[in-house]
Amino acid sequence: MSSPKKNPGWAGNTGEYELTEADVRGTAFVGKRPLEGGHPSASATYPYMLAAKDPEAPLFEGPYLERFEKILTRYPKKRAALLPTLSLAQEIRGYVSPETMDEVASLLELSSAYVRGVTTFYTMYNKQPVGKYLIQVCTNISCNLCGAEDVLKAFLKETGTALGEISLDGNFSVIEAECLAGCGFPTCVQINSKYFENVESQDVGELLRTLVAELSIDSVKEKGDE
Amino acid sequence: MGYPYSHPSEVSIISKHFGDPGARTLDGWMKNGGYDGLKKALSMSPEEVIEIVKNSGLRGRGGAGFPTGLKWSFMPKDSGKPHYLLCNADESEPGTFKDRELIRWTPHQLIEGCIIGAYAIGAEQVYIYCRGEFFEANQVLGKAVEDAYEAGILGENIFGSGSTIELTVHAGAGAYICGEETGLMNSLEGKRGEPRIKPPFPAAAGVFGLPTTINNVETLSVIPHIVREGSDWYRQWGTEKSPGTKLFCVSGHVERPGNYELPLGFPLRKLIEDVCGGIKDKKNLKAVIPGGSSVPILSKEQVESCLLSYEGVQEAGSMLGCASVIVMDENTDIVHQVTRMASFYAHESCGQCTPCREGTAWVTNILKKMEAGQGKEEDLETLIELTDQMTGTTICVLSDSVAAPVQSSIEHFRGEYQKLLNNGGGYD
Questions:
Q1: B261 - beta bridge partners?
Q2: Could you give the CA distance from residue A128 to residue A119 in angstroms, rounded to a whole number?
Q3: Among B298, A143, A45, B45, CA closest to A155
Q4: Is the dihedral of CA B343, B348, B352, B355 positive or negative?
Q5: What pLDDT is recorded for position A111?
Q6: I want to staple B264 with a disulfide (CB 3.0 to 4.6 A). Which of A112, A125, B242, B353 is the partner?
Q7: With respect to CATH, is domain B334-422 assigned 1.20.1440.230?
Q8: Span B84-115, pLDDT tens digits
Q9: B324 interfaces chain A, CB cutoff of 8 Å
Q10: What is the mean pLDDT of residues B72-92?
């Protein structure tokens, strides 16, 4: 029986498994994320939360229009495309404003009030703008038992923000999340589209510095490669 | 094998390729006997496939433990309407982290199970409703679906059988209640994920008002193996009432947390002490939640004799649920953890039913007040009465789920609550 090995960021390299981060995350298998959505049956699975956000961007153009049209083909009723469409809108704009809800409503021939009712039901739709990185710290039971509240405090301290606010530099928003289904690898933190597992409060500073360094990568390149 | 740790007690069927990136690809899956189960199923009649699953005694792995073959047999024959198979991949029960592993390591295992299930119930369309937060796992699954379409495993005339089955991956948007089957159906239709009153049951009127079967990721992942190897083979593990193996998600205060695939009926104590290497830092055990946050907490004494089968955990005083074992050591602040769970349910209540909408918030407020040292002795009775009124009075069981941790913790750890009253409460 080998002894446990801590591996902040992603679980797996415990000494029993010799895996790389790409092995665990499946990045090589997935390859370049198809902006136009790839096969229609998979088109609804590709929304991402990106650091680059453009609240004024049109809905939808170019490859995003293609992806939207593919999504529409997968359901017998147009209304069923609502959740994936809102996710796609959020990928581009970073949050779902009341105006975005109205636009999505007219694209899917629904009333604005109906779309508002649905959007506000789901936590993954940001109803307000968020920082370039949205940091969601699980504080539910399994993570909580293993120090999640300290991890949350460390994120708030290191980013200098209050819960739910955007940091002064615009880089971070930190919120408390409900169980992210990474309970064996506490504390589980979701940052934009990525899970970071086995995070302890002393790891937080370095993690944030890495994230800031990644921001200097050309945002256009980032959109394509993520 | 278990992931990220393994143990010799394990029986690896669905977890055989955890930690094996080679099995993720279509080629890798095929090399390991992948899609043989599907080919065999397609050579049989749908009724014969249902019969194998019925005989295997497989019970739904999403928490309720309903027999899968029986569920499939409820689907109407020759209804003339389109049928749907839904796969519930909206894993969000606190303590549960098995479905994400199944999806990211063996997406083709799940796709194969979905196609067999769809064939058995006469569905031409499958939706996998995947938790929205699982960006990486969803994209692994999406890529596997694309590959399956390209290889003629999905779409028209699968393996030349004349059967057409379409499969679409649908990402959710963050709502615990969408893991409830009818809430999931409403969500898939583009509505708020509010559970529906039953009847009608999904087999009569499910998603889009049409006959629907809904199964958990783990249930569908084991189907190819059962069809390929037969029901007797599967029954060699487990107990009479709980045949087969199950993924156990162990979290909390153990040395080696993770997923372990074990025969049902495995002793809980052995799981903690032997398989998981014991309590972290050699501390003593205080309590265990054996099936996710919605089931009653077991005291140390109850853990001693508890066997991890559906009937065994019930005998011990709780429920197996989705086998999400949350282990708490002697230093655990039970009241704090119960308060955290209650506030989770208050956050996730969909708000349709008054006992749940009001009750979850009220319970949370009382618990927070107690934690802050402002509680009164009668608050404990109020909590019990309140949660009694929240049980069996609502459309779905989210409301009942609050009663489980609250009532069991007061039963086993009343002293911890009282201590907060006597010393004025409050935490350092």
A1: B247
A2: 12
A3: A143
A4: negative
A5: 98
A6: B242
A7: yes
A8: 999 999 999 999 999 999 999 999 999 999 99
A9: yes
A10: 96
Residue appearing with tokens 């010393």: B423
Domains of chain A: 40-119 (1.10.10), 133-217 (3.40.30.10)
Residue in B with minimal Cα distance to A37: B142
- Write the CA distances from A83 to A48, A63, A101, A185, integer angstroms: 14, 19, 11, 29
Spatial neighbors of B69 by CB under 8 A, at least 6 apart, are B50, B51, B52, B53, B54, B55, B56, B58
| ipTM of the complex model | 0.95
* Partner-chain residue, chosen from B5, B91, B99, that has the shortest CB–CB distance to A14: B5
Residue B390, phi-psi category: left (phi > 0), alpha (psi -120 to 50), beta (remainder): alpha
Q: Percentage of chain B surpassing pLDDT 90?
A: 97
- Compare all CA atoms of chain A with the CA of B5 and give the residue at the minimum distance: A16
Chain A interface, mutation test: which of B12, B170, B297, most A Cβ atoms within 10 Å? B170
Class of domain B245-329 as given by CATH: alpha beta
User: What is the predicted pLDDT for the residue at A3?
Assistant: 40
CATH number for the domain formed by residue range(s) B33-235: 3.40.50.11540
Please tell me the predicted confidence (pLDDT) of residue A16.
87
**Edge-to-edge strand ranges of the sheet holding A133-138:** A172-177, A133-138, A189-191, A194-196
Output b/e per residue, B281-304; b: 16+ Cβ within 10 A. eeeebbbbbbbbbbbbbbbeebbe
Q: Which residues in A lie closer than 8 A to residue B174 (C-beta atoms)?
A: 122-125
